[in-house]
């Protein structure tokens, strides 16, 4: 069954694909920006704790269920359910998951289009095409829809090629390129005046601020969003893993790669902000709050690049190229969630399913652009702050309470015959059963009721 659906051909291919899904704008744009808005090192500290204590166990729940079922989230949750009502709840959770994944991609494609536009604007500036550069960087419906459609076309093209020839092949190419580009930018920015001030903010925590409920909620959202949790993405990727793989090991490697890239991105963005301050660019309001945190990457950083002369144009070109790659490695996994469901539930061919669903998501993105002020922030809040943690909670419930413990152990033994004697088995089953759901619900209640 797994072979007919497609399967990752190697551990490296899976790690690159899963890490590519996890590593996106949430790591390189969202995480550093939220760190800057929430006390720098204090946010980093809480993020690291939550990523390892909540995001990794939730990731493992999705991977194990997916590998066991070798199916989309709807069928996978049905398969491990032990009664009719529970199967209905599982199927509903899976359906909501692919709807949320589609909605995330609908706003993600818009932001990714901006990245491509800014990348091309830097190229136009190098060629002294000032008019083109200005059009590419100005917020406008024509520019926004053009590059959103271009980004969706790239995503559709990769997904239509399938698991091995599409997802795995392109992830294995793009992820090393992303990492090399990121490290090169970090090393360059750290040589600039003002960078050390940003580094201090990033690395010296205010422990009192680390206990702020607002900061904890933001850090939880960042951890779930950056690891693509709660929408079935990792479940789908898990369903394409070979039965011989040791899941706790490969899941740990994916988590580690994701967290490392988010942390390294902080070494780029926070020092760059203080380089901007050194060069006279205002990034903080009178009360110390960050100006335009959500649009920091399109306001403060371009101003910084401008102060650097021709070198700034080159840095801008490389930076937005990096952001475009990061966006693409994530978008392909988001589109795969509804595509896998459609292929398996309705028997459509892959290319037809990809085109139909890609077109539908493009249409939703267009509606958001036509009502940008009302819908853009709303869709982001509904999907990332509310839906992802709740769906992550449901996956933990199914892995911890619904799925029979013996069957779960049998799944883990496929990649490690001695699984019951490992530290993972001694901790994870009760942890995902009790600790993860309680903490997720407690933080979610804080989100709702303050």
From TrEMBL:
In terms of Pfam families, this protein maps to: SNF
Membrane topology per the entry is:
Multi-pass membrane protein
Q: Where are the transmembrane segments?
A: 12-29, 41-59, 95-121, 141-160, 172-190, 210-237, 249-277, 313-335, 355-379, 386-404, 430-449
Q: Which UniProt keywords apply?
A: Membrane, Transmembrane, Transmembrane helix, Transport
Which is one Gene Ontology cellular component term of this protein?
membrane
Where does it live in the cell?
Membrane
Q: What is its main location?
A: membrane
Q: Which residues form the signal peptide?
A: none
User: What InterPro entries does the entry give?
Assistant: Na/ntran_symport (IPR000175), SNS_sf (IPR037272), YocR/YhdH-like (IPR047218)
Q: Which PANTHER family match?
A: TRANSPORTER (PTHR42948:SF1)
What protein am I looking at?
Answer: Sodium-dependent transporter
- Give the species this sequence originates from: Parahalioglobus pacificus
């Amino acid at each position: 069954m797994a072979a007919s659906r497609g399967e990752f051909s190697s551990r490296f291919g899976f790690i690159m694909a899963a890490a590519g899904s996890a590593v996106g704008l949430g790591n390189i744009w969202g995480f550093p920006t939220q760190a800057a808005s929430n006390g720098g090192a204090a946010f980093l500290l809480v993020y690291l704790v939550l990523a390892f204590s909540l995001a990794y166990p939730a990731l493992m729940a999705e991977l194990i269920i997916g590998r066991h079922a070798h199916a989309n989230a709807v069928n996978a949750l049905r398969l491990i359910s032990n009664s009719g009502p529970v199967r209905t709840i599982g199927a509903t959770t899976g359906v909501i998951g692919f709807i949320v994944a589609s909605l995330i991609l609908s706003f993600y494609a818009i932001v990714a289009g901006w990245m491509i536009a800014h990348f091309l604007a830097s190229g136009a500036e190098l060629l002294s095409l000032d008019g083109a550069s200005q059009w590419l960087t100005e917020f406008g419906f024509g520019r926004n829809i053009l590059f959103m459609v271009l980004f969706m076309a790239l995503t559709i093209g990769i997904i239509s090629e399938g698991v091995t020839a599409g997802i795995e092949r392109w992830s294995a190419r793009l992820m090393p390129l992303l990492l090399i580009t990121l490290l090169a930018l970090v090393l360059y920015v750290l040589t600039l005046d003002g960078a050390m001030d940003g580094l201090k903010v990033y690395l010296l925590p205010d422990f009192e601020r680390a206990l702020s409920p607002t900061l904890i909620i933001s850090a939880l959202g960042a951890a779930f969003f950056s690891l693509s949790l709660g929408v079935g993405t990792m479940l789908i990727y898990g369903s394409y893993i070979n039965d011989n793989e040791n899941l706790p090991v490969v899941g740990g490697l994916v988590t580690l790669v994701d967290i490392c890239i988010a942390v390294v991105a902080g070494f780029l963005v926070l020092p760059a902000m203080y380089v901007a301050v050194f060069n006279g660019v205002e990034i903080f309001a009178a009360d110390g709050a960050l100006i335009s945190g959500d649009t920091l990457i399109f306001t403060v950083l371009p101003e910084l690049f401008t102060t650097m002369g021709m070198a700034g144009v080159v840095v801008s070109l490389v930076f937005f190229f990096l952001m475009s790659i990061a966006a693409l490695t994530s978008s392909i996994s988001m589109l795969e969630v509804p595509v896998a469901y459609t292929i398996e539930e309705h028997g459509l061919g892959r290319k037809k399913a990809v085109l139909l669903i890609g077109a539908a998501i493009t249409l939703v993105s267009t509606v958001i652009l036509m009502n940008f002020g009302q819908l853009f922030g709303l869709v982001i809040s509904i999907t990332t702050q509310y839906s992802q943690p709740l769906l992550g909670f449901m996956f933990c419930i199914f892995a911890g309470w619904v799925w029979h413990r013996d069957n779960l152990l049998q799944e883990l033994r496929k990649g490690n015959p001695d699984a019951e004697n490992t530290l993972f088995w001694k901790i994870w089953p009760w942890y995902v059963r009790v600790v993860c759901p309680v903490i997720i619900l407690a933080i979610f209640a804080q989100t709702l009721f303050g």
